[in-house]
Specification:
Largest sheet of chain A: 5 strands, antiparallel
CATH topology of the largest domain in chain A: Beta-Lactamase
Order of helices and strands of chain A: HHEEEEEHHHEHEEHEEHEE
Oligomer: heterodimer
Helix content of chain A: 55-70%
CATH class of the largest domain in chain B: Alpha Beta
Distance between the termini of chain A: 46 Å
Helix content of chain B: 40-55%
Radius of gyration of chain A: 50 Å
Structural class of chain B: alpha/beta
Number of strands of chain A: 12
CATH architecture of the largest domain in chain B: 3-Layer(aba) Sandwich
Strand content of chain A: 15-25%
Largest interface: A-B, 31 and 22 residues
CATH class of the largest domain in chain A: Alpha Beta
Number of domains of chain B: 2
Number of strands of chain B: 14
Chain lengths: 459, 227
């Protein structure tokens, strides 16, 4: 029973049922009261009308006339079984169906409910009206209260039946709802348990009438998709760390070990130590990039988004790289067009663009060209583009370059940790956009396309 | 300068203390937060270097908060293994003046400690003229002269030179320049800062003039007119 009551659909149903019953009882009480009042006053009115009629007969025809009238009426046995009695001033009966004036009737006019003994009958619970007629005659008009008893009983029975019916229907409904709800909740619970046990691919069933449960299932499934992606991201990163940190660490280790074993000249030792510090710095740079990627992947940075003019951010980055491009003799140009406001993180956008320019600077030949363009596209999205005339990326390799640690053949041997484009890709995705790599004939055109709203789509 | 180092890792502490002493500073060292608070309250320091992860799972930020509430305004450099923009912002909002991620190059630490110590004295805050040797910068008219010659600078070059002049005779690192002049907290993979410095040098140092911007090996740059 206690488990039963802890089930919230049942508690709700019972609460609702109680409310219904309370309303019904309140309604019944009101109805009962109204019914009683109207019946009672109706009865009184009948008594008053009757008494008045008899008084008129008395006024017109005098005591003998009324006596005759009463006797005629009693012989007719009218339904409603009235009590009638006419007495003289000393309460001696003249006509009627009572043997004597009932003692319980108080003095004064008005209606009273009393027990009266009818002639040759049982005592009857009667509502009586007494009237004093001219000449001291007393008139008693009454109506059998028991006449209404079956009606009252029927009313009480009807009410009880209604309450019982409502209760039964309510309890049955609660049970039914509970079964329905529990079946669906239980389904969700088992699926979620399975997921918790490690089967991340399991999803809640979304079929159904498109009701709240289906919506809830869809939302939970969306969350599960996201969690699955995050977990894969983590294992990706772990794999990458294992793979790419091992190499520089192995180099570092052998460098130090050799140093310890061979104990070379001081000048050579110091050179080796400087080399070791550089190795550590390289490891740290990889770490920093990985942590930045992990931070981007969680999407947490989105909370810091503001309205940014992408063109302004780009102008600053371009200005930052201008001297370096100039030094290499690269033709470095920058143009903007249209409205280029996006919701985003200016520092991340700057970093992404900086990575793209950095890549281009590394691969363009002397006197090559790099063109940076920021512009609104026809659909209102904003494109940040870096195009160069370097070696470009082979079509087959293009999908791979945003993978973590992928380094194209062209970039082997150049400094860098192989995470640049991954970061650009992650920044674009964080902003609800994409990174597109297009052939520039020759060279590469890398384009970050950001939706104007910076909406949180595409993840 | 008198520096308080709050750092529980002995090897790191020994390395930092040794380096700071060699650079001519006096160093007090506390191995935990309680001693750190005690030392900080006991006597004035020019700079406090505070590790974030202290024994007993105490966050250095809590110590900084206590110090600041007690009215201590000593510049604080936070050392932290926690990277990430959010951690950095948390550290700086929590009362720190600068934030350095572990592991760090000692040159970076020394440069930042020097910069904080200098700032603590308030030098150069209210002036509108900066001068290093015969190099002058008027912050109001934004005019730069070397001797009698006017030097024409781009806005960003002006900002770069202003930072170098405010930290004259101190080493400033590339990261410090990136953060202060460009407000970038990421690491560009090419030597972009070096190129900016060499462009600035070309404008500041004509053939016959004495070099002002020096490259400090393994650390960064220093603007000075001392031989």
């Amino acid at each position: 029973m206690s488990r039963w009551l802890r089930s919230s659909p049942v508690t709700w149903a019972i609460g609702y049922l109680m409310l219904g019953l309370a309303a019904l009882v309140a309604f019944a009480v009101l109805l009962w009261y109204a019914w009683n009042v109207s019946i009672f006053s109706g009865r009184e009115e009948i008594l008053h009308a009757d008494a008045q009629h008899l008084a008129e007969v008395f006024a017109r025809e005098g005591p003998p006339g009324l006596t005759a009238h009463i006797e005629t009426r009693l012989r007719l046995h009218i339904v409603g079984e009235r009590t009638l009695l006419l007495t003289d001033a000393d309460y001696r009966p003249l006509a009627g169906n009572l043997a004597a004036w009932p003692r319980e009737i108080p003095d004064g006019s008005g209606t009273h409910a009393v027990m009266v003994d009818e002639l040759g009958g049982q005592p009857v619970h009667t509502l009586v009206l007494r009237e004093t007629l001219p000449g001291g005659y007393h008139l008693l008009v009454g109506r059998d209260l028991g006449f209404y008893l079956p009606l009252e009983r029927q009313f009480a029975w009807g009410l009880t039946a209604a309450v019982t019916f409502l209760f039964v229907v309510g309890v049955a409904g609660a049970l039914l709802i509970r079964r329905q709800l529990l079946a669906r909740v239980e389904g969700m619970r088992t699926t979620v348990s399975a997921i918790m046990a490690g089967d991340l691919r399991k999803r809640l069933p979304e079929a159904g009438s498109g009701d709240e449960f289906a919506t809830l299932s869809r939302t939970i499934n969306g969350m599960l998709d996201h969690i699955e992606r995050l977990i894969h991201g983590i294992s990706d990163v772990s794999n990458s760390i294992a793979h790419d940190l091992r190499t520089p660490l192995a180099e570092l280790r052998s460098r130090l070990e050799e140093l310890s074993l061979t104990r070379p000249e001081p000048s050579e030792t110091f050179a080796e130590i400087d080399g070791a510090v550089a190795d550590v710095d390289r490891v740290m740079r990889i770490f920093a990039a990985l942590l930045r990627l992990a931070e981007l992947d969680t999407g947490a940075r989105r909370s810091g988004f503001v309205q940014v003019d992408a063109a302004r951010v780009a102008a600053e980055v371009v200005e930052f790289y201008e001297p370096a491009a100039e030094q290499k003799g690269v033709d470095f140009s920058f143009e903007t067009s249209g409205v280029t406001a996006v919701a985003g993180d200016p520092v991340l956008l700057a970093q992404a663009l900086s990575n793209l320019i950095d890549n281009s600077l590394k691969c363009v030949p002397e006197r090559g060209a790099i063109r940076v363009r920021v512009g609104a596209r026809a659909d209102g999205s904003v494109a940040i583009e870096v195009a160069d005339n370097g070696p470009g990326i082979a079509a087959a390799d293009r999908p791979k370059v945003t993978e973590r640690f992928y380094r194209g053949d062209a970039s082997r041997g150049t400094p860098g940790v192989g995470l640049g484009l991954s970061i650009v890709d992650a920044v674009a995705k964080l902003h609800g956009g994409v990174l597109e790599l297009i052939d520039n004939h020759p060279g590469l055109r890398a384009q970050m396309v950001l939706p104007v709203t910076g909406a949180t789509s595409s993840r | 300068m008198k520096i308080l180092l709050v750092e529980d890792n002995e090897r790191v502490a020994r390395f930092v203390i040794k380096g700071l002493r060699e650079a001519g500073h006096t160093v007090d060292h506390a191995g935990n937060g309680r001693d750190g608070l005690f030392l900080a309250a006991g006597e004035p320091h020019d700079v406090i270097v505070m590790d974030r992860m202290l024994p007993g799972n105490i966050d250095g930020l809590a110590i900084i908060e206590t110090l600041r509430k007690g009215g201590n305004r000593t510049p604080i450099l936070i050392l932290s293994a926690l990277d990430g923009v959010d951690e950095r912002i948390k550290g700086l909002r929590g009362g720190g003046d600068d934030y350095l991620t572990k592991p760090f190059a000692f040159g970076e630490l020394l440069a930042r400690v020097d910069a904080l110590g200098r700032r603590g004295t308030g030098a150069g805050e209210a002036e509108h003229m900066l001068q290093v040797g015969d190099l002058r910068m008027d912050l109001l008219t934004r005019r730069v002269t070397r001797g009698s010659r006017a030097v024409t600078l781009q806005p960003r070059e002006f900002k770069l030179l202003e930072y170098l002049m405010r930290h004259a005779n101190q080493v400033v690192t590339r990261t410090m320049l990136l953060e202060a002049v460009w407000e970038y907290n990421f690491d560009p993979q090419t030597n972009v800062v070096d190129v900016h410095i060499s462009k600035l040098r070309q404008k500041l140092e004509l053939d016959s003039e004495r070099a002002l911007v020096r490259t400090v090996r393994n650390a960064g740059y220093m603007l000075t007119d001392q031989p």
